[in-house]
Amino acid sequence: MSLAELICPAGTPAALRTAVDAGADAVYCGFQDATNARNFPGLNFTPDELAASVTYAHGKGAKVLLALNTYPPAGKVDLWRQAADTGARLGVDAFIVADMGVADYIARTHPGVRLHLSVQAAASSPEAIRYYCQNFGVKRVVLPRILTIPEIREIRKEIPCEIETFIFGNHGLMVEGRCSLTNYLTGQSTNMDGVCSPASDVEYKRHEDGSMSSQLAGFTIDCFGADEKAGYPTICKGRYTAPHRPEGYYAFEEPVSLNLSRLLPDLIDAGVHAFKIEGRQRSKSYVRGVVSAFRQAVDDIRAGREANIADLVALTEGQKQTQGAFETKKWR
Amino acid sequence: MAVSDMTKLTLGPIAYHWSAEARRDFYARIADEAPIDEVYLGEVICSKRAPFHEVDLPATIERLERGGKRVILSTLAEVMLKRERKATADLAAMDSPEIEINNAAGLFARGKRPHRIGPFMNAYNEATIAWMAGQGATHVCLPAEMPGPAIATAAATARDLGLGVEVQVFGRASLAVSARCYHARAHGRTKDNCQFVCEEDADGMPLRTTDDHPILRVNGIQTQSESYIDLLPEAGQMVAVGITHLRLMPQAVDMVAVATTFRELLNGGRNVAEAEATLRQTCDGISFSNGFYHSQAGYRRIAAAAAG
User: Fold this and answer.
1) Is the Cβ pair A124, B210 closer than 8 Å?
2) Model pLDDT, residue A145
3) Do B127 and A101 touch (CB under 8 A)?
4) Calpha distance B137→B112 (Å, rounded)
5) Does domain B8-172+226-307 have CATH number 3.20.20.70?
6) Do A246 and A262 belong together in one domain?
7) Which of A170, A179, B157, B160 gives 20 to 30 Å between its CA and that of B130?
């Protein structure tokens, strides 16, 4: 059986301590700049904060993974190199990377620190994963959220590194690291700036009939009845019309979040080493609730006890949830 | 004065599910009439489509080469299934023609033998380009969303390393790919029983916002820009910073006319204003954008004067 580590989000030092206290095996975080894919206002760490956080986590036996998982545009590579140097100096346990130039730099300059391949690298085949293992010494791959469990089981047999999968949280629809939708509408790039549907470009408009539309950079992404709760305008969760769908429909996906609670035993059996909970933008109380519940479930499964899956399912109760691609090919 | 008659014009791979007959006619005309130097062939978006047209590939290659074009075969952007892994490995095993790789699975299969880097490979910066050159890359096509200053730095790196460097200057931008087929979804189907409904949309399926503004195009698993990228006014700047190849993406317009317009600009037969006016006529009713190049929202059109 795999170790089934729980990898938990830390958007702030307080969230990091909360996740560690709630039983995270590792936390992942980033600096306050474009070097990570959650470059949101009010989130992330200064070098001093990271230093204190590494000390705190290590003191409780938890690891700290530093996300350097964006793609530096030409001319700005130094920012990513400096972030890697700082992370290595502060003693982080691994870097999560996507860009080959960044991976190559870390492999040569900081060979003692583990490299994890970010989901942003979109390595979805044994050959792609082995390319990164062979060339940069990658020790773990975070798999894209597009594979079924039988496919993950097959990949496991053909690669020399550990597998981490997302298990809970926001559910991106596009292949990560290959999406320029936000840049097309807002001028800020997911790959280069670490930005996705930025809050600064969001506007909610109330109409005379009481309905509300959510907009991103002036484009209407969805609309809601007077009695509905308006969702956040993420482009790939928006409602649009097409020639065959004049009524408007969720062209890519409905606004759902990923919850693989029910599949947890199968994923452990398939050889997944680590489970990632999404949500660096989430509150401390959210982190505490989700991490505690998954900690209990994973411990139960590893001890051979029946896990109380109902508690995990209840975490998203009242919201729409999906098992995404993991359960069946029909998702595609 | 000529912008550059040394600059190569290329034709990217067809992104859509055009019929085998439409492809044969298209490439016959390109071979005979289009002032294009290099043509990328092959299915990049959906592995289910490949059987429809790969049988014609040898004849198309021969036809284009007879017309004086260099042919490059492009690999799939997304590699997940057995047939996709095999298609990628098969292309990577070829000695000629050249291949353009769009997924790390292709890089793994190719080893250090010569190859081109496609626009899906995320060659955003000088460190990555240098890494790729060390692994056998001879040429790199930059991602469509790269801004002008980064393009200039990347071009200088490519020049120092002796690589060709390419930018898409015409056609819809690829904005995303997914494991899910959105064409099938729009018709209440899944990818496995899609019945190739994507063939109905030769220029992508238009999505509009619920308040009726055009926004995106769906092409199977790919999402594209509603607007065509048009970097004709910027072509001179790009040639000046060292871009060696300008890529035109096949759209459902007169691509011979599009290529002719760009060629006339490059060899000095027309100035930017004349060429741009002709291009607009060829693409009547289609919006143009160049926002990515100018570090603005991609859909935006920045005026030529402001473009300097």
Assistant:
1) no
2) 84
3) yes
4) 8
5) yes
6) no
7) A179
